[in-house]
Design goal:
single chain, about 240 residues, mainly alpha, about 80% helix
Length: about 240
Amino acid sequence: MPEPTLALAVAALAVFIGAVVQGSVGFGVGLLAAPFLMWAVPDAMPGALIMLGGTMTLTTLATHGRWIDVRGLAWAMLGRLPGALAGAWLVVAVAGRTLGFFVGVAVVAMAGLQVTRWAVPLAPASLIGAGFVSGTTATMSGIGGPPLAMVYARQEGRVVRATLSAYFLLGSLISLATLAVVGQLHLTSLVTAATLLPALLLGAWASGRLVRWLDDGRTRAAILALAAASGLVLAITSLS
């Protein structure tokens, strides 16, 4: 186990940077912070990250809520519940170190898909499928953004941010409820989320002031590369 003060500092920095990224591109807290939180506070995962991610959405909805694609959101939510059940089963079925491996692989895969900028048609079938995959990975690891982001890749930025935020908020509630039902939501998750909340809010505040300077090309690619590298390290170390 890492030294507690160092672990908390690393986790807070990861959450801060993730919040800055999510505030500008619509997702990022889970993708960037998951490997570091899995290393720093494994007993709090995935509950703590799901709580933080859900809280982050409120800051985005406060300014972009009117741009939600309500119809697309409804289709995506149809896939979210069965996906959450599948993710909860994985949390119960696999050991802690194995879960760390799965989280690492999920981060690498999701980051890779985003770097390719492969777009999926915006249609009911793809939205339901993305909702299922997102529900599974979000409940298992706290990472649920990339599958749905791929479907909305060709839409306006404000629509992407608003719809993803609404989806994350509703999805977080489903994932937390599902984890609670199967006995995998612990007090440690709540305490950790509360401890890291200031870093999240600071990142959300900073994103609003930095977004005009953030390059959605090189900066985004660099963040995704960092996320993939951290996921790879987590996957390898979980096997040792």
